[in-house]
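Why do we care about 3D structure at all? Because function follows from shape, and shape follows, mostly, from sequence. That is the central idea of this module. The next example makes it concrete: a single protein chain, its amino acid sequence, and then its structure expressed as tokens.
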Amino acid sequence: DTGIYICYLDVNLGCIKRKYIYHLDGSCYIVLPVTLKEFKGKQEGEKNVLSWITTNEEKLATYIVERQTSNNSFTEIGRVVANGGAGPYQYKLLDLNPESGNNFYRLKIMDKANSFSYSNIVLLNAKKAGIDFTIYPNPVKEQLNIRINAGGTKQYTIGLYNLANQFISQQNYTVTGNEIIK
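And the structure:
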């Protein structure tokens, strides 16, 4: 809503005190002719499914789904053309290659005049299937042990480097299931 808002900030029991005053008159942001009822995501296997529901999108052109990259900027991963009517409409987009760890998503909602606004941000934590391993003891004295849970029979090349990143040795291993390499 428009109006004057006051924000009081009090940190560490009064160590830092601040007062901020904001006057919102409605001209700060572009309001697009769309009602975003919901924007959410879920994981299905190794892919992330993003879905949203809208109404009142008569002058809307497209939805651009963006994912935050490791350098904290958002990058487009897909587009969906808006239906352009009263709705309600349901949309879905699959991220077939989410990054390991946290994936932040948002919608860039574009109208036909190329004005845009953003949705809320959805967080999905992708855990890609991969190698599960433990290296011990630390520090190593005489023997290094590597426990690998391969989830089937797989081949690995293991290289050993010292603290100065100098190559020491390399060996190939075939691991079946859960094995310890010594």
